[in-house]
Here is the input.
Amino acid sequence: MKNILWYFLIILVLGACSNAGNGELVGVENRRPYYQPMPYGMAYVPLGSYTMGVANQDVPYALVHQPKTVTITPFFMDETEITNNEYRQFVYWVRDSIARYLLGEIMPEDFLIEENRRTGEIYDPPYLNWNKRIDWLGEEEREVLEELFLPEHERYFRRRELDTRKLNYEYYWVDLKQASRKDFTQNGNPEAGALANRPLGLQDRSVYVRKEIINVYPDTLCWLFDFTYSYNEPMTQKYFWHPAYDHYPVVGVNWEQAKAFCVWRTQLKNTYVASKKGEPQIADYRLPTESEWEWASRGGHDLNPYPWGGPYTRNDKGCFLGNYKPLKGNYSDDGGATPIIVAHYPPNDWGLYDMAGNVAEWTADAFDESSYNFTWDLNPYYEYNADDNESPVMKRKVVRGGSWKDVGYYMQTASRSYEYQDTAKSYIGFRCVQPYLGRQKDDNPAKASHIYQK
Here is the structure.
């Protein structure tokens, strides 16, 4: 018996030696090579350095431009702002997920997937079945889904309409910034002060998991709220839902909704890749930082004030190069009085459209007049997650790019402004970015463009 045990021990030792790389440090074997695909509808923004904050004028004398040389690592950015039709996909997904959840309680065999038919694995909790069609007019479904519609006393002319106040998206995120900080209380002892060390697993890490519940429907009444003495009823009633505006930039979306959209878009892509291809998660969509946005806007032209590289807002034929408020309020002189279809004007040298004008854009940064002075010079980013009960000044987020109602000063790549994170405006939209992982099969991949073909 002992001989048999020694025999197996020798086999194990020899087997281990055969995989040890001849005693050399060779790393873990059998790792499949990974190449990052070119994200659909995005443009590649390369690595580079530039002078952030250079502007040839400071119209409001706000003193928020302190020139600083910074370096930005490469990333992908949406070619255009998120359009009404793209954001509507998010709204419909939230609507359908709530409906499937309600139907799953009474018809789990149709709307819930409780077991993996191939492996027999039991899902706890079960997954929603997205392949099952929802019969919104079915007798049994209608009774359950009535909860999603306006109550009788709020309906106009007895019309059965969705109650958009119930379209809430629930998600979780990990506060890595907070988790990385030192534990100044040393497990609840305030006398330890600044000499305390990190908890190193002594504290439950679930405290860094944040839960968010965000209503996703845009504020369609923002057109009336933003411009009190102006007739904007047609935009209020039609801009988001009418097919004529499908390819216009979405507005009426606050910073919190834009952030939730990025989380949902990441979930949508990674869920598909994991279920269809069995590959690791590849997507990580988010709002661009202020420094990333300015670098992308410049299109490789470091010291020029506008995204197209020149010092003027018109081309050599006298045509305006962006949608803003030119001259003394002649909104229509540039081709549009309000937001216009995305990609109407030529892109900058990195293939990005409407980086100046049309609608301003949310960034990930909190706004502070002096943030250039204390942020790092490599991928500078000033983050502050304000709670609902905090002072409004703590809820300011950086807005870039200028809009259809702004003067030419805000069209400049270095111009900064802000809006409150829980406030939606008729002139602010957003676009997403995705980090570049540093490896592609093609060093200069062709863009998978989604630009609307006129």
Summary: The first strand starts at residue 42 and ends at 45.
